[in-house]
UniProtKB/TrEMBL annotation:
EC number in record: 4.2.1.152, 5.3.99.4
Keywords, in A-Z order: Endoplasmic reticulum, Fatty acid biosynthesis, Fatty acid metabolism, Heme, Iron, Isomerase, Lipid biosynthesis, Lipid metabolism, Lyase, Membrane, Metal-binding, Prostaglandin biosynthesis, Prostaglandin metabolism, Signal, Transmembrane, Transmembrane helix
Positions of heme binding: C430
Any coiled-coil regions, as ranges: none
Name this protein carries in UniProt: Prostacyclin synthase
Family: Belongs to the cytochrome P450 family.
Cofactor(s) needed by this chain: heme
Signal sequence, renumbered to the chain: 1-29
Keyword Membrane: yes
Positions that bind substrate: R108, L114, N280, R371
Main subcellular localisation: endoplasmic reticulum
């Protein structure tokens, strides 16, 4: 009996060993990028990658150069870090696919499987609503919501100092205003947007672990419970309930229903859209305001530019929004902020084996089933050959001496098409970019012109970034910085 059990256990161990060997067995062919499997079978570099992807990929770049393949939890990921060669990946939509990995994340994070997933149609619909006249209407609604919330948040005594963390202040205000603008006020309960914001922050805090499937058991339970809470808070309104959502969201829900999605699927899709539309704007505004508060010269320049724009309550908002169109100093400050703090991976799945033609003439084969990943945060954004002293915030980095936008940046003596890439690029670049820029600009304008706002401790420095968020869009701080604010009297 004992011998049989021992034999069976040995056999199992042997099978496991063979399985691991099979998975570890990949070798590099001559035409493929350098391969770095890491020491741990199957897992490869997963732990280091998840802990601080920027640090890990910098180490790999020093070891292998601008292109290499690493093993991460059983998958092989080819990382490309030469911005001169990015177009060859971005324009190859025949062999390199955007939507498969997006679907993996949709299932892992939102437990969402759409009856028919058609990213091209969704993108086209979104493009229609976030451009031209429709965008102008959304911007105006956003402005009214931001101004209303900014003022009501200072109540009951608007001229008394209130204290908050800058991250919570920026994220909270932009999230609630964005939610009201796009999703509509379907809660007659005035705390609706605040309840959703609070639940969303818990969800957002677990997001990277959900995506990597590394939640601990108690975190799994927390994720499950907060996801359910968000679903119940978001479930689509029945006719006559609360104010209508934006034309974009109405169209999106109608399209889902026509595709055969049931009510549960629609609710899950709403949480996905809440994340896509609200998850990055607040953190971006936090960094921008944080850089201004800790860089007096930049604050002075942005305030000077805004000082020409009237803000009194009786000024028509379309005049304010029109004046906010031409703000080169603010635009440079925003580009510089995003250069330092936008760190998405641009990921594609290799559908069929294909060849990458690098700008330097070298060619590399990609294997079917692998992933390809660009990480523009390392290059161009933090590349010292492109941006001098890349770790420093310089509000005028994207300004020419004559005050126009600077677009000339070089690497290897050649002018770059991509010198910063916070919005991604190519066919799958961010569709909400113009709405996001307008929202952040409105927020900073309103805060600087309607509030007295200062650091509680004038010597405060900005918190370090939370290194586990590299690859997931806007970075977030590890901690917060205390501010105080009150409504300014308008003379
Ligand atoms: C600071 C704020 C934002 C940043 C930094 C940002 C960044 C990005 C990036 C990098 C991508 C491309 C991902 C890839 O290629 O894999 C993307 C895609 C996308 N973004 Fe944004 N985004 C922001 C705000 C917004 C807003 C406000 C909206 C909507 C109102 C939005 C809607 C989308 C959508 C729908 C896509 C997917 C496009 C597609 O399917 O091809 N984003 N965003």
């Amino acid at each position: 009996m004992w011998t049989a059990q021992l034999l069976f256990s040995c056999l199992l161990l042997l099978l496991l060993f063979v399985f691991i060997l099979l998975l570890s067995g990949r070798t590099r062919s001559k035409r493929e990028p350098p391969l770095d499997k890491g020491r741990i079978p199957w897992l490869g570099h997963a732990l280091e990658f998840g802990k601080d992807a920027a640090k890990f990929l910098t180490r790999m770049k020093e070891k292998h150069g601008d292109i290499f393949t690493v093993r991460v939890a059983g998958r092989y990921v080819t990382v490309l870090l030469d911005p001169h060669s990015y177009d060859d990946v971005l324009h190859n939509s025949t062999s390199l696919d955007f939507s498969r990995y997006a679907q993996v994340l949709m299932e892992r994070i939102f437990h969402l499987r759409l009856p028919q997933y058609n990213p091209a149609a969704e993108r086209a619909a979104m493009h229609k609503h976030f451009h031209g006249e429709s965008l102008a209407r959304l911007n105006a609604t956003m402005y009214r919501n931001l101004r209303g919330l900014l003022e009501s948040d200072t109540l009951p005594d608007p001229t008394r100092w209130k204290q908050d963390g800058l991250f919570n202040f920026s994220y909270g205000l932009l999230f609630r205003a964005g939610y009201l603008t796009l999703f509509g006020a379907r809660h007659n309960n005035k705390n609706g947007p605040t309840d959703i914001y609070n639940a969303f922050r818990t969800f957002d805090g677990l997001l990277t672990k959900m995506a990597r499937t590394t939640l601990k058991p108690e975190e799994k339970r927390e994720a499950e419970s907060v996801r359910k809470r968000l679903w119940s808070l978001l479930s689509p309104a029945r006719p006559g309930e609360g104010a209508a959502p934006s034309a974009w969201l109405q169209g999106y829900l109608k399209h889902l229903e026509e595709d055969g999605a049931d009510r549960d699927t629609c609710t899950r899709a709403l949480l996905l859209q809440l994340w896509a539309t609200q998850g990055n704007v607040g953190p971006a505004a936090f960094w921008l305001l944080g850089f201004l508060l800790t860089n007096p010269e930049a604050m002075k320049a942005v305030k000077k530019e805004f000082s020409d724009i009237p803000v009194a309550a009786d000024v028509p908002e379309n005049l304010i929004l029109e004046k906010l169109q031409c703000t080169p100093v603010f635009d440079s400050t925003l580009s510089e902020t995003l250069r330092l703090t936008a760190a998405p991976f641009v990921t594609r799945e290799v559908l069929t084996g294909t060849t990458l033609h690098m700008a330097n003439g070298q060619e590399y084969d990609f294997r079917q089933g692998d992933r390809v990943c660009l990480f523009p945060f390392l290059s161009p954004q933090m590349d010292p050959e492109i941006h001098r002293e890349p770790e420093k915030f310089k509000f005028d980095r994207f300004l020419n001496v004559d005050g126009t936008e600077k677009r000339d940046f070089f690497k290897g003596g050649r002018r770059l098409k991509y010198y910063t890439m916070p919005w991604g690029a190519g066919r799958n670049a961010c569709v909400g970019r113009h709405f996001a820029i307008s929202a952040i600009k409105q927020f900073v304008f309103l805060v600087l012109s309607r509030l007295d706002l200062e650091l509680c401790d004038p010597e405060s420095v900005l918190p370090a970034v939370n290194a586990s968020r590299y690859g997931f869009g806007m970075l977030q701080p590890d901690g917060d910085v205390l501010i105080r604010y009150k409504l300014r009297d308008l003379l």
